[in-house]
Design a protein that fits this description.
With 447 residues, the chain is of the alpha/beta class. The chain is built from 17 helices and 17 strands. Bound molecules: iron/sulfur cluster. Iron/sulfur cluster (SF4) binds next to α2.
């Protein structure tokens, strides 16, 4: 939570020595509060006061960076409990298990499956983020080899998961350049040895301990040891207990500013059958988990999880929009249909996917309604005959087709006459729902 200028001023030397380049300490405090100056610009500031100010002004949840280059991801630094209060900042990373006791060919195959999991939805590419390599063998050597193979084949950031500090150290050293997350499965048993390892390697670490109280103890020990960039994981839990834990830990971090829980949470959704895994993973995504590990590569299950993530990590104050220019599906000729809808992404992509399914090359014109759906925009007078006629004119579609017929959504049939009058185009009333477009385009459309 940001401090006010006056709160910062109270901890400054108050000598007005001007070494910071400002005439007074109060002016400097105001600059710091506005994010226009840093505390390091005040040389006389007592180190303890600086540390206390930095701690007090830090975000309620730590940012954790995993991976390098194109594989890099950022987790945490969330500031909202509820999505309507503010956008969730860093989408949950989805990781898929890789077992280090498998044969190298099986590990490579698993990695390739992870790499292939990509989906297009609402104009975005949805992908899995990480491979989570589990040290099932308990041996450092096999762990290192498996981590290398998983990295090579998946081309993803890695989580290296083990109860053995030596295994983690070996794999962390071997793949240090890739900035893997070191996930320690028994943080209490490893203690200071694990903290020293993470500091020496300069890598983020995930401390696993069974439940809220044990995690608080691990977090406090890590903080006392000087660790800054770490995550917390409660380990295997029943779904109900896991949801209670996630709510409790988020509330502790964001609302109560309880620093020991101000770290991103990693969850395992690996215990049940595939349906149970899918449901639990979606719940964890929706209820604040920063990282969720699943043990499936089935596209239909991964798509469900990624869809939940896409839905919750949009900005609720900004509707998802598409470009309000003329779009094409296939290679439409001069006799292709011209369909209008709104520039609300969900409306547009619903229409686009059905037009694609019909295999009838078409033009689609998403009229600028500031991201409102068809009926909402019509009710707000943003999707009327005059506006659509203007959009048709400005889109250039008149020079692309030889006819003058436009298909409008069935829900706004009432605007047919005014659109005809404003544009001179013949207005055809299409189906009410996008799902009716396939039969409509195949059997009813005629240029
Ligand atoms: S350098 Fe520090 S003590 Fe000096 S005027 Fe600036 S804020 Fe005040």
């Amino acid at each position: 939570m940001a401090l006010t200028g006056l709160e910062i001023y109270k901890s400054l030397p108050k000598t007005n020595c001007k070494q910071c380049g400002l005439p007074t300490c109060l002016a400097f405090a105001m600059k710091v509060a506005a994010g226009q100056a840093g505390l390091d610009q005040c040389p006389p500031l007592d180190p303890k006061a600086r540390a206390a100010l930095e701690e007090a002004s830090a975000p309620p949840q730590q940012l954790v960076k995993i991976g390098a280059g194109e594989r890099a991801i950022e987790l945490g630094q969330e500031t909202s409990l509820y999505r309507h209060e503010g956008k969730f900042q860093h989408p949950t990373a989805i990781a898929i298990c890789v077992n280090d006791s498998l044969a190298s060919t099986a590990i490579e195959e698993r990695g390739r499956q992870i790499a292939s999991l990509k989906f297009e939805r609402l104009g975005a590419t949805l992908k899995v983020d990480m491979a989570a390599v589990f040290n099932v063998s308990g041996q450092p050597r096999g762990f290192v080899e498996a981590a290398r193979a998983a990295s090579r084949a998946s081309r993803k950031a890695l989580a290296l998961v083990s109860a053995n500090v030596e295994s983690l150290r070996a794999a962390g050293e071997a793949l240090r350049e890739e900035r893997p997350l070191l996930w320690l499965m028994d943080a209490a048993a490893a203690g200071a040895k694990a903290f020293d390892m993470a500091k020496e390697l300069g890598l983020p670490i995930c401390l696993q301990a069974p439940g809220f109280d044990a995690l608080v103890a691990s977090s406090e020990a890590a903080r006392a040891a000087g660790l800054k960039e770490f995550m917390l994981a409660p380990g295997p839990m029943k779904a109900k207990a896991a949801l209670e834990f996630l709510s409790q830990s988020r509330r502790a971090a964001i609302v109560k500013k309880f620093r020991p829980m101000g770290y991103p949470i990693a969850m395992l959704a690996t215990g049940g059958d595939s349906a149970q895994t899918l449901v639990e993973a979606c719940w964890y995504v929706l209820k604040y988990a920063a990282l969720v590990v699943v043990d499936t590569t089935r596209p239909e299950e991964i798509l469900g999880i990624l869809t939940s993530r896409q839905d919750i990590y949009t900005d609720p104050q900004k509707p998802a929009l598409v470009d309000s220019t003329l779009h094409t599906v296939g290679n439409p000729g001069t006799d292709a249909p011209v369909l209008v809808t709104t520039n609300f992404a969900l409306s547009y992509y619903s229409v686009e996917s059905e037009v694609e399914a019909s295999r009838v090359p078409s033009f689609i014109l998403p009229v600028d309604t500031e991201g409102q759906s068809v009926l909402t925009a019509w009710a707000a007078d943003k999707f009327n005959g005059k506006i659509i006629a203007k959009a048709l004119k400005e889109s250039g579609v008149e020079s692309r087709v030889g006819h003058r017929k436009v298909v409008i959504p069935g829900y706004v049939a009432v605007i047919s006459a005014s659109l005809n009058e404003e544009s001179g185009w013949e207005v055809l009333v299409g189906p009410k729902e996008a799902s009716g477009l396939v039969p409509y385009l195949k059997s009813q459309w005629k240029p």
